[in-house]
Amino acid sequence: GSPRFVPDTKTLLVHVGEKGMAAVVLGFYDNPDQPVAYQRVILDSRYPDSPEMKQMMVTYQNQLEALGLAGLEIRPVAHPRREIQGDYVGSEKCANCHEKSYLIWKRSGHAKAWDTLRNLDPPRTFDPECISCHVTGWHPTRYFPYISGFLSEKETPHLVDVGCESCHGPGGEHVAAEMGSDIERQRRAAQAMIVTKKEVENSEVHNCRNCHDLDNSPDFDFAKYWPLVEHYEKE
């Protein structure tokens, strides 16, 4: 590409990309028509990790672990549908009544999301920007937990991974209703848990792309990924 002059100045503007994902190669030439040229080069698997940058990442992750959520001033807030859907209970609570759907989830990458963070080098299991899309009960794009959502692997082991409630919302009221005998309460609670294909593709709340965005899931293709998690319940 050719750098452009900042309007009304002799300063050349070079776009270096976003979030350190690219390096810039600059070329200076004895060509009056194009004395400077540049190219952005994506830092992909062709380039080994920098030991210095990796050590900085290790130090940063250790700092996050030492601070904890409280030290980062991250505090749980109420889920916007808490009054309707109750608290988070974990995917195992869904297994008995929704066995087929549960098995589809269990075979999916969502059920291994926590291991993805744990197996990174360095691990990122204390990084809110990573946790938010790899556990149950967090806001995926604002990096904070909801009340009754995931806090840590030790405190809330039932909420590691991207569980049923990550897409359907908290299931506490649904579980409580099914344990009782109020048919109308059961109907309301079950209805509140329903998420349609249209919603996960287009809605702001349930949209898969809240986590499968360009930064973290650049190869995401809804039509390709949807069959891996697709499941339905009989009325």
Beta strand count? 6
Query: Strand order across the biggest sheet?
Result: 1-2
What distance lies between the first and last C-alpha atoms, to the nearest angstrom? 57 Å
Q: Which spans of ≥5 residues are poorly predicted at pLDDT below 50?
A: none
Estimate percent helicity: 25-40%
Notes on the protein architecture:
The protein has 235 residues and is α+β, with helices and mostly antiparallel strands. It has two domains: 10-42, no CATH class; 73-229, no CATH class. Helix content is 34%, strand content 9%. It contains ten helices and six strands. Strands 1-2 form a two-stranded antiparallel sheet. Strands 3-4 form a two-stranded antiparallel sheet. A hairpin with a 6-residue loop joins strand 1 (4-5) and strand 2 (12-13). Helix 7 packs antiparallel against helix 8 (183-193). It is elongated, with a radius of gyration of 23 Å. It starts with a strand and ends in a 6-residue tail after the last helix.
Features:
2 domains; alpha+beta; 10 helices; single chain; 235 residues; two-stranded antiparallel ribbon; two-stranded antiparallel sheet
Task: Describe the structure concisely.
This protein has 235 residues and is α+β, with helices and mostly antiparallel strands. The protein has helices at 51-71, 82-85, 99-106, 113-118, 128-131, 164-168, 172-179, 183-193, 197-202, 222-229; strands spanning 4-5, 12-13, 22-28, 36-42, 138-139, 144-145.
Topology of helices and strands:
Elements: E1 4-5, E2 12-13, E3 22-28, E4 36-42, H1 51-71, H2 82-85, H3 99-106, H4 113-118, H5 128-131, E5 138-139, E6 144-145, H6 164-168, H7 172-179, H8 183-193, H9 197-202, H10 222-229
Antiparallel strand pairs: 1-2, 3-4, 5-6
Helix pairs in contact: 7-8
